[in-house]
Design goal:
Shape: elongated
Number of strands: 16
Distance between the termini: 30 Å
CATH class of the largest domain: Alpha Beta
Strand content: 25-35%
Largest sheet: 8 strands, mixed
CATH architecture of the largest domain: 2-Layer Sandwich
Order of helices and strands: EHHEEEEEEEEHEHEEEEHEEH
Number of domains: 3
């Protein structure tokens, strides 16, 4: 038997303090009955729900942060026999990536078997920051940056507003580095946005996803997320 708030936290739904608040507010049910007493103990066979959503306390969720290298596909399996991001994680659990990074794109990628959280994170309504650094063939001018910030037409739709910052210019090589922050996650979106203003991406790296960055990791390396990090991710979704 474990305290209810501890179980909710261990499942990654929220922090213990957040769980206590939900319990006091009468938003938590155990076996269909509202529980308002902090410290109530539950077992693995008890059914816990928050605002009608059942928490699966019989499932061991796994959460990973991977520094995706170039030349790996962001899927759980590949019909062409290429190495996948799942192949890089040492686990017997059937995990899958949260969104995708292109074959030639490197950087932050989350993987999990928590389908509820993955789907919520991928939905654009939750406005999860995705920060990319692009090396561009050509030099973006003020008009290009303004267009990228306000949205450009890609595959028949206009991209949402983005944050764009010119980081470095190399006039001799006629290249530049630009930081682009978006909330959407459409196929090859950043590359297509750059193409929409008449330039081409030479290299692309996702530097940050939500509050996750690549500190302490080399390309191809990964780490498990802490319960606290998972709880913070849950706090970001609607």
């Amino acid at each position: 038997m474990e305290r209810l708030q501890k179980v909710m936290s261990s499942l990654g739904y929220c922090s213990r303090r957040g769980a206590e608040k939900l319990i006091i507010e009468g938003k938590v049910k155990v076996n269909g009955k509202v529980v308002t007493e902090v410290g109530t103990k539950v077992s693995n066979s008890d059914k816990i729900s928050v605002d009608g959503m059942v928490l699966d306390n019989n499932k061991n969720y796994e959460y990973y942060l991977l520094y995706k290298p170039r030349g790996v596909v962001s899927t759980s399996c590949d019909d062409k026999g290429r190495k996948t991001v799942v192949d890089l994680i040492n686990t017997d659990t059937r995990i899958y990536p949260v969104g995708r990074l292109d074959y030639d794109t490197t950087g932050v990628l989350l993987l999990t078997n928590d389908g509820f959280l993955a789907n919520k994170l991928m939905h654009p309504s939750n406005n999860i920051d995705k920060v990319y650094i692009a090396k561009v063939d050509g030099i973006l001018d003020g008009n290009d940056i303004r267009k990228l910030k306000n949205g450009v037409f890609v595959d028949g739709y206009k991209t949402s507003r983005a944050r764009v910052k010119l980081k470095k210019v190399d006039k001799k090589k006629n290249t530049c580095l630009v930081e682009i922050t978006i909330h959407e996650g459409r196929n090859r979106q950043v590359r297509k946005m750059i193409e929409a203003v008449g330039k081409k991406v030479l290299k692309l790296k996702r530097e940050r996803y939500a509050f996750f960055d690549l500190k302490g990791l080399k390309a191809g390396e990964y780490r498990r997320l802490s319960n606290k990090e998972v709880a913070i991710l849950y706090s970001l979704i609607k």
